[in-house]
Sequence to fold (165 residues):
Amino acid sequence: QRVLKPGAHFYVFTAFQYIGDFIRALKPLEFQPPCLIWHRGKPTTPGYGYNYLNSTEAIVYGHRGPRSKRLAENMYNILEHPEVPRNLRVYPTEKPQGLLKMMIKQSTVPGDTVLDLFAGSASTLKACRDLDRRGVGFEIDPNSWNRAQLALAGESLTEGENKLF
Fold:
């Protein structure tokens, strides 16, 4: 609430078991579901036959009031984008460029500033750069931030470095 401009949108990737916590916390801010669902195209957990295989991740979407900024286009709330292949990730939970670019285009226009509070892979910052938006990111882990800076500069990582995850 403090850093968003009036009408600005936000997106938070989270596990399904935490959606209720987000909805309760956001209620005073006039948050209105639905949440988005990212379908990764393959399971995120191993299958042992006791549960259904999970191939999705929740994305809490909302805005800072008053509700004045429309999405760029009407879309369904199930977003189909394959995950970043493991051997190409800069960070274990890196999100695909196609998914991030779609969300950024839905909620901003060229020249807008996008804030990523968990910029471990710098993937949001890369998407912003490609879409002519200003990207600002924070990352608490210095090793991840250094790797993200290499990725932003376009330098490739060695195969051994990628296997840290």
